[in-house]
Structures are given as structure tokens and as C-alpha cells.
Write the C-alpha cells for this entry.
Amino acid sequence: YNNIGISYHGLNSNDLAIEYYNKALNIWLNKTEQKSQNIAFIYSNLGNCYASKKSYKIGLEYQLKSLVALNKLLGFKNPHVAKISNSIGNSYSNLRDYVEAKKYYFNSLDNCLYQSRDLTKVNSIEILMDAFYGLSTTLKKQYTVEQNSQILSESYDYAHQTLSAIDFQKSMFNFDGVKSIWQTKNFTAYEQAISV
């Protein structure tokens, strides 16, 4: 059922996706062993689906449940925890709670093992790029409200870090065929970063 939900979500049929995610969730919640990552991932899928419908508060409830479950199951410094933290940051940003949004983007950076602009130890460069982009766009939104030049400067800094992460990832490939696949896969992230 979860995979059917993912398919419907991919087709932007969010109500059908939610229906199938809930069927999958009910199956897993009725099992005797409830410490499954599947429950956490279904919560995440439900949260992201509601966010796609712009029902950010409902989505946030599921995303926070997912984060709690993933922290218990996987611990800190895990890419799955980083990914759901980005989703939570996105929901808070869309709700215009910029302080909470930034808190979760920073949590994502921590879970990606990002320290002092060192990209060599990062466990997921793609999730790291999402966190940088989330920080950059959230700060840009915050700037439009507060008109504080320090906030705008921070936004540009995170946009620059997004571009640096993209360049770092791109540098790990050594032949043109892979580079063209990389460019196709990450073009949107690159365009979003330079748009800030």
C-alpha cells in the first residue's frame, strides 16, 4: 500500500496517496512489533503528501512523528533524520515560522555531518544541498518581512554553500557521461541556488 501511495503522490493524486498511506500505516500499527522504520517512513510520506496539498499543519504533525520515530530507531547523525528535518523545515517555512524552520534545517546539517564548511565527511550531499537551499530561501522570505540586511547576507551565504556543495559533488565524477547524468539530476537545485 505504501508503494501505491508513493505512486499516487508522484502523480499529484494526493487524496488517493493519503488513502493508501493510511492503509499501509494501519497494517504496520497493528503488528506486534511497532519499532519499524516503515512506520516512520509512512508518517514522513503522509506529512509530505499533506504539505503538497498545502495542509502544512497536518503535514507537520506527521513529519514530527516521523522524526521522533527515526531518532529512536536510527539515532543522531543519520541521513534519514536529516531528510525529514528538511521536510519539517519546509513546512515551518511555509507556515512563516522562520525561527522553527531554521532550527530544523540546522538539525539536518548536523545529521549530515556538516562541520565548518568541510564537505568531505558529509553522509548525504543531496540532503545537505536541500538544507542549504531551505535555509537560503527561508532567510530570503524572512528578509522580505523584516528588511534586515544581515538576514539577506545570511541567505546569500547559504545559497553560495549550496553551489559549493553542488560543485563538490560534481567534482567527484571523472568522465563526461556521468557528468551529464549529474547535470540532468541536479539542474533544478543548481538553478534554485543561483536564483537566490
In short: Confidence is low (pLDDT under 50) at residues 177-184.
